Amino acid sequence: MTITEDRAADAATPEIGRARTRKEDARLITGRTRWTDNIQLPGMLHLAMVRSPFAHATITAINTDEARKAPGVVGVVTGADIKDVQGAVANAWPITADQKTPDHLPVVVEHVACAGEIVAVVAARTAAEARDAAELVDVDYDELPAVLDLKEAVKDEVLAHPALGTNTSAVWTLDSAAQGSGTDVEDEIAAARSDGVVIEREFRQQRLIPAFMEPRSTVCDPTGEQMTVWTSTQVPHILRFLVAATTGIPESKVRIIAPDVGGGFGGKLQTTPEEFATIAVARRLGKPCKYTETRSESLLSGHHGRDQWQKLTLSARKDGTVTGLKVELLADLGAYIGVVGGGVPVLGAWMFNSIYKFAAYHFTVRTMLTNKTWVDAYRGAGRPEATFAIERMMDELAAELGRDPLEVREQNWITHDEFPFTSVAGMTYDTGNYEAATAKAKALFGYDELRAEQRRRRESKDPVQLGIGISTFTEMCGLAPSRILGTLNYGAGGWESASIRMLATGKVEVLTGVSPHGQGHETAWSQIVADRLGVPFEDVEVLHGDTQISSKGMDTYGSRSLVVGAEAVVRAADKVIDKAKVVAAHLLEASVDDIEFTAGKFGVKGTDKGVTMPEVALATWTGHNLPDGVEPSLDADATFDPENFSFPHGTHLCAMEVDTETGATSMRKYVCVDDIGTIINPLIVEGQVHGGLVQGIAQALWEGAEYDDQGTLVTGSFVDYTLPTSADTISFVTDHTTSPSTYTALGTKGVGEAGAIASTPAVVNAIVDAVRPLGVDDVVMPCTPERVWKAIQAGRAVSTEGDRDAQPHFDEGAPNQDPGAASPESTSDGSQS
Amino acid sequence: MIPAQFDYLAPTSVADAVAALAEHGDEAKVLAGGQSLLPILRMRLNAPGVVIDLGRIPELQGVSEDGDHLVIGAMTTYAAVLASEAVTTHAALLSKAIATVADPQIRHRGTVGGALVHADPAGDVGAPALALGAELVIAGADGSTRTVAAEDFFEDLFATAVGEGELLTQIRIPKHTGWGAHYEKFVRVSHQWSIVGVAATVRSEGGSIAEARVGLTNMGSTPLRARSVEEALVGQPATDEAVRAAVASVNDGTNPPSDLNGDADYRKHLATVLTRRAVLAAAGA
Question: What share of chain A is helix, strand, coil (3-state, %, to 5)?
Answer without folding.
Answer: 35, 25, 45
